[in-house]
Amino acid sequence: xxxxxxxxxxxxxxxxxxxxxxxxxxxxxxxxxxxxxxxxxxxxxxxxxxxxxxxxxxxxxxxxxxxxxxxxxxxxxxxxxxxxxxxxxxxxxxxxxxxxxxxxxxxxxxxxxxxxxxxxxxxxxxxxxxxxxxxxxxxxxxxxxxxxxxxxxxxxxxxxxxxxxxxxxxxxxxxxxxxxxxxxxxxxxxxxxxxxxxxxxxxxxxxxxxxxxxxxxxxxxxxxxxxxxxxxxxxxxxxxxxxxxxxxxxxxxxxxxxxxxxxxxxxxxxxxxxxxxxxxxxxxxxxxxxxxxxxxxxxxxxxxxxxxxxxxxxxxxxxxxxxxxxxxxxxxxxxxxxxx
Length: 340
Description:
Elements: H1 32-55, H2 58-83, H3 88-120, H4 129-155, H5 161-201, H6 219-247, H7 258-278, H8 281-284, H9 286-289, H10 294-306, H11 311-317
Helix pairs in contact: 1-2, 1-7, 2-3, 3-4, 3-5, 3-6, 3-7, 4-5, 5-6, 6-7, 10-11
């Protein structure tokens, strides 16, 4: 039974400040549970960094590594709350980091669609491949900004219920924005594959230069595609759960149900991070991993300016990187951000 103590005047569990009076209403699970989530998050970041440097998937690696590290900090906060559910630093670390972490993981998912569209036929897409990167990362950054502002306001609302509620509402708006972005992503990806499958069923010939690379017909790529679908599904499930969890306000019954939190937040994010690490695009999706150096872009630009007659001599200049296939779509214009 709650003692009805003011949660803002409590800094430890006492006879006056019961654990039920804390925002989460319980001691977070014994160390093995948050420690396992911390371990899965932190252990995924190291392979991500290694594989990203090896295969030069810079943006994908940055997003996934940030997501894993932010999640790890959040679970450190849960470990602190296990020892003291009124610890403000633990609340700040969990509240801010576990809200924002999945948004970084979503960036890695968004990056894949651009390269899949390029590989399987841009003619089936309603958008040019490069716009997928800008559209979804912009939407995710906006959602992440709202979540950061909301988490910051909530974390600093010591003794101020109105500020706590405002921060919660802004964070909810950020998570809703993330769900909307994920839904649009799923819709456009579904339309792309539907149009491509329909064209193949009707016997429409592939355009010249868009025949699917044999590398994309291997089991390795299919496992990568499955990992992306799993990661998308788990992140989407987690976001929907977090909306429901936070809609009732701080300390509501759903927020105080630790079993649901573990199943629908911790496990979902861990599965997404592990799936995108085990089936990394560096060795599962070569088209996404190929790096184009500044010198190679300059060579390709020269080829385009001088015409096809010089293609033989110029192409030999880039033979030092035989695995790299130079494409016009891969050339970064001056001042253009180049996402991999």
